[in-house]
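Hey,
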Amino acid sequence: RVTMCVGKCSRIVGPCLLVLGTLSVAANILLLFPGGSSKYLAEGHISKHAKAMPGIWGGGIAVSTAISTASFLACLWSREEGMEQVAPLHPPSTFSFPQLALLGAAACFVLSGVGLTNGPLCFYNASEHGHGHGTLWGYPFLDAGSQELDARTENYLHDRHTWSICLEPAGVVAWNVVLFSLLLLVSATEMVLASLQILNGCLGCLCGFCEGK
C-alpha cells in the first residue's frame, strides 16, 4: 500500500515539475524581449539578471532534466523488477536527481529575487530624479543611493507612479515585475515539489528495505 502511494506521488509530482519547468523557461525568454521587441536584446539593453537566464538553466533545464531522468530510471527499474506499479528508485537515483532539481529551483528563486529587487535596466532621465545628469541607460531604482535597500524596493514595487521614470523600453518596469514575480512563484513551487519528491524517495527506500526483510 505504501509502495503504491509512493509511486502515485511520483507520477503526480513529476509531470507538475515538467510543466513548471516549461513555464519558467517561457517567462525567462519573455524577459529577454521587453514589450515583445528584439531591439533591446540586440543592443544589449537587457537587465543582467534576465541575461543570466536563471529561469532557463535553473528553474527550467535543471528541473526538467532531473525529473525526466529520474522518471525514466524509475520506469526501467520497475520493468526489470516485473512490477506493474512504478517502483521506488534505488538510493542514488532517489536522492541525486530531485536534489539537482531543488538546487536549480533555488538558484532561480535567488536570482529572480535579486532581479526583482534591483529593478529593470532602462533608459531614463537621471537629472529629474537626482541620479546624475541627462538621460542614460541604467538601473534607476538601484542607483537611488540615498535610500536604504528595503525602503527603495518597497517604494519601487508599491508606488507605481515611480515606474514612469523609465522612458524605454515602454512598460519595462511592469514587464519585469510580472515576469520576475512569476519566476519567484514558479521556482518556490518547484522547491516545494522537489523537496516532496526527496521525502517521497526516502519513504520509498525505507519501504523497499522493509519489504526486503
